[in-house]
């Protein structure tokens, strides 16, 4: 048997923490804000942009591009200003104007509760603010040379950030500093060799990894990306007339695959799932597990049922199916599934990685 929690002071802290620990997890702060490029600040232009920004928020929160074709959603779109909390304008840099093709951005923020209600009343899924982050390793072939998209202000990076923001995806672009270059080359990324890329991604603590290439032939741009998610690899591809359009389509495909696992239709029924977590040696680990489970978006409450050895048994009450909860846990890096008796008597076992 593994060692017991012997320190009485730690056990006392653990019991106390059941009542006082707040839920803390990284969330997308601007999930209910969207921007739309405009040529002026006129009322007519603003109203049209407001409707487009509202549609973008509904797509982002639902996780589905097709949500705007729902009849109830279409009825709500013309009333975008009724759900708006505030708006402002941002003047774009020269590099940004090449991507957005307009001098200004209208930035609008909408009421979160109203957006959720519109989606739920229309029987559409809701994807929570707590979302997995992805490391994007993208190689671009242009003018006879290849480079990697990094966190700089070039056209591909701006397009990636714009497309990811539009779908509510927190993404990480590599630094390609000495540490990265010692582990991965442009050729590795171009060839989508998962071994070195996965090792290089560890420093970024990403929940999934996207590796791919962008290239041009004639007037067409081609993209081939691989998405490594929850232990499986899926390939996606697209063609477009521009880099911006190509990147947007490929990011849309990544978002669709994530949302298919994480965006949920909330039911009126609350279900209890037992989550048994090993490798909890101290209060910090316990707090990490509890907060992680509390912030999965579909969770109503988390309660401790049992503490023994270096493990804790939690009861997690969810507003959707237990499988949606397990899918959400599997995507992240924090809990590693222990493949024994999974789902037996409603209990699932994991090991905490922190």
TrEMBL record:
Protein name as annotated: DUF2066 domain-containing protein
Keywords: Signal
Secretion signal span: 1-25
Organism: Kangiella aquimarina
Pfam family, one: DUF2066
């Amino acid at each position: 048997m593994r060692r017991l929690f012997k320190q009485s002071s730690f056990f006392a802290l653990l019991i106390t923490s059941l009542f006082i620990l707040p839920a803390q997890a990284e969330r997308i702060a601007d999930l209910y804000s969207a921007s739309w490029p405009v040529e002026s600040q006129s009322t007519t232009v603003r109203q049209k942009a407001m409707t487009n920004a509202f549609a973008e928020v509904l797509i982002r929160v639902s996780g589905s591009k097709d949500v705007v074709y729902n009849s109830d959603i279409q009825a709500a779109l013309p009333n975008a200003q009724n759900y708006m909390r505030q708006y402002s304008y941002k003047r774009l840099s020269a590099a940004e104007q090449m991507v957005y093709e307009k001098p200004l951005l209208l930035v609008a923020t909408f009421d979160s509760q109203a957006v959720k209600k519109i989606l739920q009343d229309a029987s559409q899924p809701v994807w929570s603010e707590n979302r997995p982050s992805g490391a994007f390793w993208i190689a671009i072939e242009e003018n006879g040379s290849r480079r990697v998209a990094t966190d700089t202000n070039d056209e591909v990076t701006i397009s990636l950030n714009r497309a990811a923001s539009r779908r509510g995806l927190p993404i990480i672009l590599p630094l390609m500093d000495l540490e990265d270059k010692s582990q991965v080359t442009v050729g590795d990324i171009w060839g989508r060799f998962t071994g070195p890329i996965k090792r290089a991604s560890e420093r970024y603590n990403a929940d999934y990894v996207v590796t791919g290439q962008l290239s041009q032939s004639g007037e067409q741009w081609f993209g081939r990306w691989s998405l490594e998610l929850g232990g499986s690899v899926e390939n996606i591809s697209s063609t477009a007339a521009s880099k911006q359009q190509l990147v947007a389509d490929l990011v849309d495909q990544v978002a669709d695959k994530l949302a298919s696992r994480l965006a949920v239709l909330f039911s009126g029924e609350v279900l209890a799932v037992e989550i048994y977590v090993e490798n909890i040696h101290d209060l910090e680990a316990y707090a990490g597990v509890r907060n992680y489970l509390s912030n999965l978006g579909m969770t109503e409450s988390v309660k401790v049922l049992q503490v023994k050895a270096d493990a804790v048994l939690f009861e997690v009450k969810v507003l959707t199916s237990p499988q949606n909860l397990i899918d959400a846990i599997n995507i992240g890096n924090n809990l590693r599934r222990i493949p024994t008796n999974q789902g037996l008597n409603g209990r699932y076992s994991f090991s905490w990685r922190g």
